[in-house]
């Protein structure tokens, strides 16, 4: 069983997700105390996919994050570099065009998608700037990005309780539910080391995205960042 370290070596990250693939969605629901479903609805609304639009769901894993976009009639491409996650996704959602690809070297032409999105994936990519630049490259001028990622609760007392949850409650619960509980030690560590809301917004701006803004969900446990690629 693999647990990635915080230097996020791509082969370690990919094989860690290969190990959790089978029980990934169940573990998510349990560890997020059911909040994951609400977060997905908020992402769906923020992306606002329309019929016939092309949407890239990067780091799509088992494709659970991709399904809501497909339901709108958009053409959704779930892309991920964990073959285990892609295989599990293909079993559950055989109609989706799962594509193997690394976020830092996307296998798509420039200006291919109306919207690009990544849920709980960017934090796991070794080179955040490279992934944001690739997302920008494959987005059509005038297109949009939505990033859903763990962030910093804004109210200090809640932040303290949440950090305690990450450090103390999450590992034993993960041991009971996940096929690779060690992966959830990485989850807690990587969340604590991740940029807060303004810092991630600054990275998006640096990559060229305009009209960057964010919205907190569940008190800032999760943030949805959005941005637009300037029209040509
Ligand atoms: C926590 S899962 C999220 C899956 C899905 N988006 C969801 O919301 O359930 C993170 C995913 O990021 C993928 N990932 C991490 N680094 C990646 C990279 N450099 N390129 C492509 N996928 C990557 C992992 O393989 C894993 O499937």
Automatic annotation (TrEMBL):
Keyword Hydrolase among UniProt keywords: no
Keywords: Menaquinone biosynthesis, Methyltransferase, S-adenosyl-L-methionine, Transferase
Pfam families for this protein: Ubie_methyltran
GO molecular function: demethylmenaquinone methyltransferase activity
UniProt enzyme class: transferase
Keyword Lipid metabolism recorded: no
InterPro entries assigned: SAM-dependent_MTases_sf (IPR029063), UbiE/COQ5_MeTrFase (IPR004033), UbiE/COQ5_MeTrFase_CS (IPR023576)
Role summary: Methyltransferase required for the conversion of demethylmenaquinol (DMKH2) to menaquinol (MKH2).
Family of this protein: Belongs to the class I-like SAM-binding methyltransferase superfamily. MenG/UbiE family.
Protein name: Demethylmenaquinone methyltransferase
Lineage: Bacteria, Bacillati, Actinomycetota, Actinomycetes, Kitasatosporales
Gene field: menG
């Amino acid at each position: 069983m693999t647990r990635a370290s915080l230097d996020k070596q791509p082969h370690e990250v990919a094989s860690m997700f290969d190990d959790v693939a089978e029980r990934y969605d169940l573990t998510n629901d349990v560890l997020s105390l059911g909040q994951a479903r609400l977060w997905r609805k908020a992402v769906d609304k923020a992306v606002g996919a329309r019929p016939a639009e092309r949407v890239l769901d990067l780091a799509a894993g088992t494709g659970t994050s991709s399904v809501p976009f497909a339901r709108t009639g958009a053409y959704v491409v779930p892309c991920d570099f964990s073959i285990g996650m892609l295989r599990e996704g293909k079993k559950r959602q055989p109609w989706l065009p799962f594509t193997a690809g690394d976020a830092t070297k996307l296998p798509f032409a420039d200006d291919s998608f109306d919207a690009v999105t990544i849920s709980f994936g960017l934090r796991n990519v070794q080179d955040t700037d490279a992934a944001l630049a690739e997302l920008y490259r494959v987005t059509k001028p005038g297109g949009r990005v939505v990033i859903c990622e763990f962030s910093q609760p804004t109210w200090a007392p809640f932040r303290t309780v949440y950090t305690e949850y990450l450090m103390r409650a999450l590992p034993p619960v993960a041991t009971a539910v996940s096929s690779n509980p060690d992966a959830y030690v990485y989850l807690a560590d990587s969340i604590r080391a991740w940029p807060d809301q303004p810092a991630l917004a600054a990275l998006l701006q640096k990559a060229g995205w305009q009209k960057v803004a964010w919205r907190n969900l569940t008190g800032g446990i999760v943030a949805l960042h959005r941005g637009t690629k300037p029209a040509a």
